[in-house]
């Protein structure tokens, strides 16, 4: 028999960036918020004081989801049998308070104005035939200008270090802190880009260049360039994360209660409205019902979609008919690029910060003409010095054996003589790429696993080849003695690490027929349910998603406050 607790104003399912922002903003405005996190207890900077253990955190994924208890199943095509992902690889799902916001590198971009009106702008410039059959291209139902104030709020909460993108959208204010330092590596890329008439700028970083106090009074410190960002928490309090920003802010109000070891298995609803959530206390094994006036789904992309599907909330996407919206528009990302090997130059590549780098946006969005190209969009081009850690970093030139004496010798030689220049390539939604429930496999609580059906498309492959060509040109200008690009795309594989930039499944839009939520992240089918996160992106861009996720979370928090006063669909 489930235990029913007293009703709260707002309950969030997940306490990472999205859940933390919702909690802070609602709690500051006198709403009572319960944050449910399935991972262990709260954690802050002190918990990461001995974090420089590459084997534990980077190789064995100590901060990540336990896939023996909950995973996904995967297949490339719908006529294949999906099998469970038994080890983390292609992407790394965060776990615990702060979620993926604990172990991220800190790249904090704004999407381009083009992204939010992708369908409209593509047709206006190139005509309707530019969008190929099978691609589910749609606008977001919000423009960059409408979202810009929320970008600004997120950047000021985080203290982002950066400089304006010369090819990006207009800004209402500068970044709150200056860019991180440049290095020999990043200067080499910047200088080469300028010689090729490109427009480099400092990568916007949540690794702070100087100490900063955010508008809520939370203190962040200056980065030490230790190179332990991605897959690690920050023991200096210098990488902006939910644990040192929005979660402490929410807690200080007295209106926020954090509950850990709370694994939500169902959104309860009746008559077109949610009544609360059902979760398992994973320590006591107790089943608990938490009633709430507003339910906010703020877990990772995969679980946001899974919870809606297992709760029968929203219309599941059907790839055969093209109808339904939940599970639709799942997108990933491409990572073309070039590695350069230098015989006479050495770099302090063992040092760095997660988002220390230079970026070129000339090949992103529609910043270049696509008239004679058989694809749309592009990618941001980056050289970042995040730090070569010794176990995982063994760069060797082409033709080198992958073991033995020669491999060891060249690994040592090129450890400080290698530069990677790489793209984050945009991913467009396709009819055959989607998320649904697996009919066979279940998690540790008897809930069906989420099934991913995904493969790279012709659009992906053509964009990948084009961007590889561009990265080769820049690497040659940088003076590499030997270079090798990352090669053509093959079938997508779930195992080797690529990027934790999964988006879609609960797409946003202005039309309920093709979207699950409106531009406040409010569900069309249940107006007191808000689904906040990268799951609402109708497509992926050529950037990391976190900046846009944060902006949408601030807008959703505003919408929840409006809803708590007026009810109904927000416009």
UniProtKB/TrEMBL annotation:
Q: Which UniProt keywords apply?
A: FAD, Flavoprotein, Oxidoreductase
Q: What is this protein called?
A: Gluconate 2-dehydrogenase alpha chain
GO MF, any single term? gluconate 2-dehydrogenase (acceptor) activity
Where on the tree of life does the source sit, at the highest rank? Bacteria
Which ranges carry the Glucose-methanol-choline oxidoreductase N-terminal domain?
206-331
List, for all copies, the residue spans of the domain called Glucose-methanol-choline oxidoreductase C-terminal: 429-553
Give EC number(s), comma-separated: 1.1.99.3
> So what family is this one in?
Belongs to the GMC oxidoreductase family.
Q: Which organism is it from?
A: Lederbergia wuyishanensis
